[in-house]
Write a structure and sequence with these properties.
The complex is a heterodimer. Chain A is an alpha+beta fold. Chain A has 23 helices and 24 strands. Chain A has four domains: about 190 residues, no CATH class; about 200 residues, no CATH class; about 160 residues, no CATH class; about 210 residues, no CATH class. Chain A is elongated. Chain B has eight helices and ten strands. In chain B, helix 3 crosses helix 4 and helix 3 runs parallel beside helix 5. The longest helix of chain B has 16 residues. The chains are: A alpha+beta, B alpha/beta. Chains A and B meet through helix 1, helix 9 and helix 12 of A and helix 1, helix 2 and helix 3 of B.
Chain lengths: ~800, ~240
């Protein structure tokens, strides 16, 4: 132990006495470790951090598996009750919850908050204790609207109510209905969803405030709740799955119209983020970015290992003397390894600081939505452990080879190289490391370029509508207690007033915006279409819009007519569909006059009156799915929420104050949120945000890799040229011209770069194939591969130029005398 | 103390095998002060490296204090080195980043000696070599003579039975060289066996006998007349 401390002390001193080397090595390692820690902070937050509840490993998530293998993690409350009563042998309990966006009015101000409607056993199943007051009781929430109580999250209590210790017992209004605050959840517990951060909890029965169908607690088709179960102690997941298989069969027999051909699945909560679906891409995306960051770390390791190899050569004499004084080989290796570990720890400490900065930067990314998304990439013991582990691994990786090589040398020979001190000659290991660096850097740059080109292509792709010149204002008058007739009048009034504002070309409302996080879907019965045997009706997304919507969004009409003012609640129910809908359900037929019935409103047959060009509403890439526009006037009952969209002839942002004033004058204290241009609204995770983040992260890692590779190439060529000073002197003495020397040095650099490029091309090709689902350009896009390879070649050869030019200036007389 | 029997050292070269030492046979008694002389390239330093166990790639038999070194593995040879041998180099080979005190401590730290005992041994040697005042200086702050003094102190700090000195005064001027040789004489008088390699006849005179090497052969050893000479081989 004491000798180990001595090695550490000596290592620290060595680093102190070589400040330039130490700084370069520490910064290089810090960049690599920092990049990894930053990416890992995201992965940790989304995928690894357990729920802050006792025994989180017992928490599982249930899902329904359709016949085609697709997963659906929402259940009806009726199904929840069946499952809870029939699985008590394996689950100590099952909880249910659903999301809500509600207006909470307190102290004269209405906030729009993300709420959680939970079953009465929600908190008792999780096993947490309230910070204040009580939680929702197991007996609460069983009947519609029966228990108007609410639990606040700790952070919402602190920010909205100033941590008022007297909050319990106070009454606030939720969507215009009085609700009593009964407690505050513990600090750090913002719900059990891995993506969203909730602000308040209400009993499940109070979800009536959200305006669902009146029979939402008994209708097996109204699927709104997510189910989590706590496994009984000692029960394995397999046992739970076996129990669910039996229950699924029983339910299929009991309710064949809704549960036939459906099976049930159960996943550990940690493997259900964001949803309990084995095909969710979160794990793959996380793996890809961790892999890219790992590559940067390897490049950094390559650089530092190269520097350490040079130092090991320079310190050959010291090692020989130590061996002559009795140091065993293992002791020499340990000393050099200790030094590299000290270096890596310093790099790790600095890397953690970079990681802290990086993760707080990622946490601050604006998602262009008012929903509180959990972007808390804060540091915890796992992250510190990860940083420490990769720092240790880095120390061993960069130090082991130089240490072993230094300990293997011929002592007698080294001790007799007295005047020279350094054993000269090319080092194939160092060349090999730089080849790997060039290859790794090329791979990173190609992937970065593929992401960047994908972003560019997505930004310039034909969306099927014209986003520029449109501004959005989101609102939900139900949040301030408006009933249907009130908000119907409010919206009609609002549209009339907005259309009269100077600079407004057109204005309309919609229940969702392209790439938005709010959308509605249904499983309609479609005239002339029979789903395959055993399959439910297809899930179709719809948008309840006002007249002028297609004009505001500039969506071209292909056939029939647009929705107009005549399409009222008393008129015939109509719809406009997109081309994809026609192609799928009425191929080669005239869709005009066809009918379908929404499962949620089966009393109305809806007639198709028009067909519009396909527009991208749900995803920026991939196939466009069938899409339906319904006149909001015929569907106000379920659409209190709306987005006012205004197309302007002037800069749309300049309209914001006028429109907000107008809304305020019509509905005082109505929260207006997500006010942004339609172009900004595309930057969501369904839209361009993932491409932007992907391109940004990949480009940062790629540039980091490029810098490391260039430094590596420069270092090796520079060192090699310096080692060949004598040879260069001799060559010049016998008649070599500067150009000959330049060629000689460049040849070595070119060889390294060419071999590295070939390796990098292969690695990039293999990696890009894994990534192809995230790209909008081809994973094997030749332009990307060739342009990046050419660019890297130019940059790498430029790195050879300085040492090559220096070599041409060697004075033969001085070089020969020096030797 | 040392018996070498037909020790040979070769290097592989592009043209074949080059012999550095040929059939070296010699005996060395405990307490002797032996000088090895010969022109450059005669194999003096290689012989010293083999005796000091810095070189493993040789053939023949080598006994140190009745232990068959040629039968030992690398680790056991290193153990013997640590236990019995101290080195003094022409270029001192002090560790530049360590103080005088730490340089003296280094060989002891490789011998599983407790810190307190090491401190006492280093203090004793600093006192004995009268360099207490220099203990916190780095090698670059010392003159060549002082550095070699520290080099010798480092060689003897572990109380070795054998000191191997490779041209210990080669980098010193004559007065410093004399002081160093007097020191070797004193150590030898106190019982330490010494083998030195030198070009200097003056330094050789401090020893009990001189072995001459030429092209890897022992051409003269007063105590062990060569069994086979180059001439004999030529015949």
């Amino acid at each position: 132990m004491e000798s180990l401390l001595q090695d550490v002390r000596y290592g620290l001193r060595m680093l102190r006495r070589s400040p330039a080397f130490t700084a370069i090595a520490v910064i290089t390692l810090a960049l690599g470790i920092g990049a990894n820690t930053t990416i890992f902070s995201m992965v940790d937050s989304f995928l690894l951090r357990p729920l802050p509840v006792p025994d989180p490993g017992q928490i599982t998530v249930l899902t329904q598996i359709e016949k085609d293998g697709s997963h659906n993690d929402v259940f009806s409350i009726a199904e929840y009750r069946d499952l809870r009563s029939q699985t008590s042998g394996v689950f100590s309990n099952l909880l249910a919850y659903q999301f809500g966006m509600d207006g909470i009015n307190a102290y004269g101000r209405t906030d729009r908050v993300l709420t959680n409607y939970v079953s009465g056993n929600f908190f008792s199943l999780l096993g947490i204790k309230p910070a204040l007051g009580r939680f929702i009781l197991p007996s609460e929430g069983e009947a519609i609207g029966a228990d108007p109580v609410m639990v606040l999250t700790y952070s919402y209590w602190k920010t909205r109510f100033g941590g008022d210790p007297e909050i319990v017992g106070k009454t606030v209004s939720v969507n215009g209905s009085p609700v009593t605050i009964v407690g505050v959840a513990p600090e750090g517990f913002d719900g059990i969803n891995s993506v969203l951060s909730f602000q308040a909890y209400l009993p499940l029965g109070m979800a009536i405030l959200e305006g669902p169908p009146r029979d939402f607690m008994t209708n097996r088709q109204v699927r709104n709740v997510f189910l989590y179960g706590r496994l009984r102690p000692g029960v394995a997941l397999k046992q739970a799955q076996a129990a669910l298989d039996i229950v699924a069969k029983r339910l299929a027999q009991q309710y064949p119209e809704v549960d036939k051909d459906r099976s049930l699945g159960v996943f550990p909560e940690l493997r259900s983020r964001p949803s309990p679906d084995p095909s969710n891409s979160m794990v793959m995306v996380s793996g890809v970015f961790l892999g890219l960051a790992g590559m940067v770390l390897l490049l950094a390791c390559g650089n530092v290992a190269n520097i350490l190899l040079v130092r090991a050569t320079v310190r050959a004499r010291e090692m020989a003397v130590r061996a002559a004084l009795g140091a065993a080989r293992i002791r020499l290796i340990r000393q050099l390894l200790t030094e590299s570990l000290v270096l890596a720890m310093a790099g790790g400490a600095t890397g953690i600081l970079i990681g802290l900065w990086g993760s707080s930067f990622l946490s601050s990314i604006r998602l262009h939505i008012d929903v509180p998304v959990r972007l808390n990439f804060s540091f915890d013991w796992r992250l510190l452990g990860f940083a420490l582990a990769i720092a240790l691994a880095t120390g061993v990786i960069v130090g082991l080879m130089p240490a072993v090589r230094a300990s293997r040398q011929n002592l007698g020979a080294v001790l007799h190289e007295l005047g020279r001190g350094i054993i000269a000659g090319r080092n194939r290991l160092r060349d090999g490391l730089v080849i790997l660096q060039v290859g790794g850097s090329l791979m990173l740059l190609i992937i970065a370029m593929l992401f960047t080109r994908s972003l560019g292509k997505a930004q310039h792709s034909d969306l099927g509508f014209e986003p520029s010149g449109v501004i959005n204002f989101c609102m939900d008058p139900a949040e301030i207690g408006y009933r249907e007739e009130q908000y119907r009048a409010f919206y009609q009034n609002l549209l009339t007033r907005v259309r009269s504002l100077p600079g407004v070309e057109s204005a309309s409302t919609a229940s969702s915006v392209p790439m938005g996080y709010i959308g509605s879907s249904d499983t309609p019965e479609i005239d002339g279409y029979q789903p395959p045997v055993g399959q439910p009706n297809p899930d179709i997304t719809y948008n309840a819009v006002s007249p002028d919507y297609l004009k505001t969004m500039k969506i071209p009409l292909i056939q029939g007519r647009m929705i107009d003012d005549g399409d009222t609640e008393t008129a015939r129910f109509v719809a406009v569909v997109n081309q994809a809908m026609v192609k799928r359900f009425w191929p080669n037929q005239d869709p005009i006059g066809r009918h379908f019935k929404l499962a949620s409103e089966p009393e109305h047959a809806i007639e198709v009156i028009g067909v519009v060009k396909d527009a991208r509403f749900q995803r920026i890439t991939g196939d466009i799915a069938p899409y339906v526009f319904l006149p909001v006037a015929q569907h106000y009952q379920t659409n209190s929420f709306a987005i006012l969209q205004v197309r302007t002839s002037i800069a749309p942002e300049t309209m914001i104050p006028q429109v907000e004033r107008l809304i305020e004058s019509l509905a005082p204290s109505l929260p207006v949120f997500d006010v942004q241009t339609m172009t900004q609204a595309l930057d969501t995770w369904r839209g361009l945000l993932l491409f932007q983040i992907g391109a940004g992260l990949a480009a940062s890692l790629g540039l980091l890799g490029l810098v490391l590779a260039v430094v590596g190439v420069y270092g090796v060529i520079s060192y090699s040229a310096a080692q060949r000073t004598h040879e260069i002197g001799v060559r010049m003495a016998v008649g070599a011209q500067p150009f000959d020397i330049l060629k000689m040095v460049f040849r070595q650099g070119l060889l390294i770069v060419c071999v590295g490029l070939m390796l990098g091309m292969g690695a990039a090709f293999a990696s890009a194939r894994v990534l192809k689902s995230l790209l909008t350009v081809s994973a094997t896009d030749p332009w990307t591969y060739l342009s990046v390879a050419a660019g890297l070649t130019v940059v790498a050869l430029s790195a050879c130029y300085l040492p090559a030019r220096r070599a041409t200036r060697v004075d033969p007389m001085i070089a020969l005398r020096y030797e | 103390m040392i018996q070498l029997r037909n020790v040979e050292r070769t290097y592989k070269t592009g043209a074949g095998v080059t012999y550095v030492l040929r059939r070296i046979t010699m005996d060395l008694r405990e307490g002797e002060f032996v000088t090895v002389m010969g022109p450059s390239g005669s194999g003096k330093s290689t012989l010293l490296s083999i005796i000091g166990m810095l070189d493993d790639s040789w053939a023949g038999e080598y006994y140190l204090l009745d232990q068959a070194v040629h039968k030992l593995d690398r680790k056991k040879r290193a153990d013997l080195n640590r236990k019995y041998i101290g080195f003094v180099f022409q270029s001192y080979h002090l560790l530049d980043n360590l103080t005088v005190y730490e340089n003296l401590d280094v060989p002891l730290s490789y011998r599983n000696i407790s810190r307190a005992q090491r401190a006492s041994m280093v203090a004793e040697i600093l006192d004995r070599f009268q360099i207490v005042g220099k203990k916190d200086l780095f090698p670059s702050q010392l003159s060549g003579g002082q550095q070699q003094l520290v080099g010798i102190a480092r060689a003897v700090v572990g109380n070795p039975k054998l000191i191997l000195a490779d041209e210990p005064t080669g980098n010193l001027h004559s007065s410093q060289a004399k002081e160093i040789m007097e020191l070797f004489k004193k150590l030898n008088d106190q019982g330490t066996t010494i083998i030195q390699v030198t070009h200097s006849e003056v330094n050789a005179a401090y020893g009990h006998r001189t072995i001459q090497l030429f092209d890897g052969w022992i051409t003269s050893d007063p105590a062990n007349p060569p069994a086979t000479s180059p001439e004999a081989v030529a015949r």
